[in-house]
Specification:
There is one protein chain. Among the domains are: 119 residues, no CATH class; 101 residues, no CATH class. The chain is 85% helix and 0% strand. Helix 4 packs antiparallel against helix 19, helix 6 packs antiparallel against helix 17 and helix 10 packs antiparallel against helix 13. The chain is mainly alpha-helical. The chain starts with a helix and ends with a helix. Keywords: Coiled coil. This is DUF445 domain-containing protein.
Length: 425
């Protein structure tokens, strides 16, 4: 685009070319009896005519020459509507027609461009701040009161669909597989031994033993023997005897390969397997589970947990360090994985192209409307100034070329005339 100074210099040169041709013609008129001067006079005359004609033509494109309303001048203002229609038609049908736009879009790998743009955006210093602000706003504005009923209903649905029988069987299998029955027995024995070794356990066991023996309904000699035995004992002695007996049995049961321990574990395992495979137990468990799920009012509890989770999350997000620590690496991995997935990129590119092409087809007419709207916003003076600004330098060169061409043609024509009028002919 020509600079304003260059345009002014070109316009000045065009004016001077016309002035020089006119001055040369006027200066040579009194001396046409001389052959060389006559040749120059013809050249200056033709150059002046050519310069004037081109000045008239160039000026007539934009305005009336010398302000005189000569017919077929000021072509641009008079034919503004036609020019606008032609410009809109050229843009819509030639320069930016739907087919050319669609073809150009298909040649562009838009998916890769979007990935590159996303990677550059992540490298931007403001990206972390923007992501942090957006994430905090999203977390703080989540409608938890609307989410809680959905989660509650999903929990209730999962509880209802869960088969308690399968859960019980799985629990039994895991118990036997990992030896939890052994651990449970050992724990029970440890707790029993711990209680038995407490001082107060002696009196408790003694009292219970004395009451049990006293409650026996015996007759004759057997009753006499029991009474004699009770007379010898008291609660403390009875309790100590029972405690020692029980501690001895506990010691036996704590021995890994003792027959009583093995028999007890075998019986315990049999009861676990029987319980786990009992269909009646399964039915009662499922019925109980379904009743609990149907009557469970967990919205408030779920909402409270969600509010607690949000509060803890906002505290964690407060310094924004999570963006660099977690969000950016996650985004980078996703973009890298996507870049390696050529088939997915091809599908994504096709979808983007299809969407843009469809958008262009639906809104192609708006391109012409935009051009027309922008042209119609300008008055004639603004439009003429714009055209002269873009084309003025070349138009002024038309004037200069017209003067110079006329000058050369004038030399040729005058030379031919002089030859024709020469006495030798």
């Amino acid at each position: 685009m020509a600079k304003p100074k260059q345009r002014r210099q070109t316009k000045k040169a065009a004016t001077w070319s016309l002035v020089i041709m006119g001055a040369g013609f006027a200066a040579s008129l009194p001396f046409q009896q001389y052959g060389a001067v006559r040749l120059l006079a013809g050249a200056f005359e033709a150059g002046m005519v050519g310069g004037l004609a081109d000045w008239f033509a160039v000026t007539a494109l934009f305005r009336h020459p010398l302000g005189i309303p000569i017919p077929h001048t000021a072509l641009l203002p008079k034919n503004r509507g036609k020019l606008t229609d032609a410009l809109v038609g050229t843009v819509e049908n030639n320069l930016l027609n739907k087919e050319s736009i669609a073809a150009k879009i298909r040649d562009i790998r838009l998916a890769e461009m979007l990935l590159g743009g996303a990677e550059q955006a992540l490298a931007s210093p403001k990206a972390a701040e923007a992501i942090d602000t957006l994430a905090k706003r999203l977390v703080s504005r989540l409608p938890l009161d609307s989410i809680a009923p959905v989660i509650t209903e999903e929990i209730r649905r999962q509880m209802t669909s869960l088969d308690a029988g399968q859960l019980l069987e799985s629990l039994a299998n895991k118990t036997l597989e990992h030896g939890y029955d052994h651990k449970a027995l050992d724990y029970a024995l440890e707790q029993a031994e711990s209680w038995l070794r407490k001082p107060e356990s002696i009196m408790t066991l003694g009292t219970m033993g004395m009451q049990a023996i006293s409650g026996l309904q015996l007759h004759g000699l057997m009753q006499f023997a029991v009474n004699a035995f009770l007379g010898y004992l008291n609660e403390e002695r009875m309790g100590e005897m029972i405690r020692q007996f029980l501690l001895a049995r506990i010691d036996e049961l704590q021995m890994e390969h003792h027959p009583r321990r093995s028999a007890l574990l075998t019986g315990l395992q049999g009861q676990i397997e029987k319980l786990a495979s009992d269909s009646a137990v399964h039915t009662r468990l499922n019925d109980w589970k379904n009743e609990q799920a149907a009557s469970w009012k967990g919205e408030e509890m779920v909402l409270g947990k969600l509010e607690e989770l949000r509060s803890r999350l906002l505290v964690y997000m407060e310094d924004g360090a999570y963006v660099q620590a977690h969000i950016f690496p996650l985004c980078a991995r996703l973009l890298e994985d996507l870049r390696k997935h050529e088939e997915l990129l091809d599908r994504l590119n096709e979808q983007i192209i299809s969407a843009i092409t469809s958008l262009v087809e639906k809104n192609h007419g708006r391109i012409g409307d935009l051009v027309r709207e922008n042209v119609e916003k300008m008055d004639n003076a603004t439009l003429i100034t714009l055209m002269e600004d873009k084309l003025g330098q070349d138009l002024q060169w038309i004037r200069i070329n017209g003067a110079l061409t006329g000058f050369l043609i004038g030399i040729v024509l005058t030379g031919i005339r002089m030859l024709v009028e020469s006495p030798i002919w």
